[in-house]
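Narrative summary of target 7.
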Amino acid sequence: MEHVWAETALTPDGWQQNVLVTLDAGRIASVTPDAAPQGTRVGCLLPAPANAHSHAFQRAMAGLTERRGPDPRDTFWTWRQLMFRFLDQITPEQVQAIAAFVQMEMLEAGYATNVEFHYLHHQPGGVPYARLSELSDRIAAAADLSGIGLTLLPVFYQTGGLDGRGLTSGQQRFGNDAERFARLAEEARARIATGPADRGFGIAPHSLRAAPPEGIRQVTQLAPDGPIHMHLAEQKAEVEEVLAATGKRPVEWVLDTLDPDHRWHFIHCTQMDPHETEGLARSGATAVLCPLTEASLGDGIFDGIRWMDAGGRIAIGSDSNIRISLAEELRQLDTSQRLRDHSRAALATPASSTGRRLFDAINTGGAAAAGRQTGALAAGNWADMLALDMTHPDLEGMTGDTILDSYIFAGDDRMVRDVWSAGRHMVHEGRHIHRDTIETAYRVAVRTLRAAT
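Modeled conformation, tokenized:
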């Protein structure tokens, strides 16, 4: 057994002092307040949330898409064309090196789990690798080194639009029919099963434009208990395409056709009308939000106030990974509500400060999105834990919920001192234990890629 002792810790019973957390086989065995110090000592101990939506390979594109092309108005759709060209170059070895770097940065930012929405499956041109799950296997191999908790979501991607058109050259590396996808998913599941016991597996129909209704029904049977993830209502053009093809807006179609429940986790949801927001929130599904990417791509602003007031669950992801920062994602989520509504502390309640409400919400929602027994410092959960450095000037004299408010609104990743994922102590004093090895491989991978793109 291992022991972690904290001066203060956020537990299911609220903030407690002098807390001793005992770990056994990667899980929390006990949480004891008012205990004598022993083992690793930290200032403030928190449950470490899951990063609920990531496309690891896009990290290597950071900084490459901030120039306007020939189109007078740069949008998500022009950015996507640049992404497709980038993908024509990337190799399995580069996928693995980039994914390990992303996972390392997630851990250093305070996340314990990577929920990887993985749609890059084949060789350039769409020819499968000898092992269908080659690139999914590379994500798992990256996690072997980074030590992050991993929930792998192989993505089903079949069509180029709701009219059933074929995939473009940039999309061919994603494409499968339902039968081949089932084989790929089973290979990937088998690879996940060879890793640590805390690894998880789910299924992700990419979106309504890329996954036909019958295909969605088929592939979701591969994970009958979930988690099931899907992009939904991210862009205005997407809403218009779905409406033209089905007579319904995307969320309306999902509510009427898929009967979503707690197994479902919908990404972005930035283009919803009020009745859709309330209806989807009441379904039990999770909204997986990626505020930094949603801002970068001009997706829009998620209606967080209406969603959370309707009892909706949320999780946080870093999506394109151009900037991996847990504190900044949460800050962006709340400040976008303030800017839209000309208000302050938009997501606070009389009972909870902004930071406390958001942090509790993303731990609960992130655990559901990862299909992982986590989200709280409680016996039986995986030991996913984050320690903040209480000697940081912005935390001086702070107690209780003001610690979270200061971390999210005044701080940044430099406050993160230690991180454990299923008891694996991967970040010490703000630095990943394998940073030098992972960073060296990443530099080699992106140098080659950027020269060829």
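The longest strand covers residues 14-24.
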